[in-house]
Amino acid sequence: MPHLDRYKLETTVFDGSVVHTTYTTDLESRQRRTPVQTRWTDKKTLGAGGFGIVVLQETDGGELRAVKKLLKGMGNIDYSRELKMLSKVAHRNDLFVLFMGWYENAECIYIAMEYIQHGDLSQYIKIPKFCTPKNTREITRQLLEGLQILHQLEICHRDLKPQNVLVASTDPVWVKIADFGVSKCTKRTILRTRFMSQGYASPELLGLLPLTDMTYTNEIDIWALGCIVHEMLTGEIPFLDSPQYFDSQLSLGSEPDDAQMPQTDVIALKAFCDGSIEFPTDRMRRSGVSDAAEECVKSMLVGIPKFRVTAQDALQSDWLLPDGYLEAGAQPNAEQSRRNHMLVSSRPFLSCFPTMFG
């Protein structure tokens, strides 16, 4: 993994802690290369999944980070894929969780990321005071900006859902896309393997379309986002057998039991894709969703993938246009605050790689 070696942290792994060694240059003391050691100690487990855990680590100075610990030798999983995706979006930590490097030992690969203390969107999505029309609009904009970048880089996330959207700030609202464990580059490859989360899986992933080659594209991310936006606006995921679904407190790689997962009403969804029924807008209308917001959601939730709106075009919808957005009373400095944070938080990130950045 030559490209990823630039992000590899020089590390000594201990039981319950690790020590990273970085190097600094001090002209006054005429020290060209001085080693600096930083110890990170495990504090608690944040989440667990089938292939590893996520732990909270802290330095002696009180800095926090989240570390994904992945067991080697688990099936045919290529862990370098997640590292590659994180490295490709590392310059936009206003939209994606900040990648702080990686390290390994004989048993595991460790991926270090910023710790976002507010948790993930699944913890807020049923709270009306959080999912206001203004906040929902801003979250939609931010997630579309993230998907626009991913798709321009020819990356398909493949598992966009509230648990993989981290809440960096609640006021002004600011979210980041996380967990690239099943993401894949679409350049010179065909997507066939089906990764899905019930409730957010597109019709093509569920096998409801008459596709002969059973492939899919970036449009699955747009469908998943449409489901998330619908859920924020109405409190319900579209095309469910029952409006009662799990209230997950899991994040960063944790998965609820199958019995807790929402189940898609495949009969209704197939009928919609076949054109037998219209898109069910009754939930949005009962919730007082504006016509512009409804049209934006419907443009993402189109049954035939090639007719689904792109992230770039969705950002130009009437609901999300800047003028209408500001007239609705949104914070005009929300975007600037995110970009300012990106510049500030990038400084310690860059210092982790002295050989790369001088």
From TrEMBL:
InterPro entries: Kinase-like_dom_sf, Prot_kinase_dom, Ser/Thr_kinase_AS. Residues 40-320 form the Protein kinase domain. Pfam families: Pkinase. SUPFAM superfamilies: Protein kinase-like (PK-like). This is Protein kinase domain-containing protein. It comes from Discina gigas.
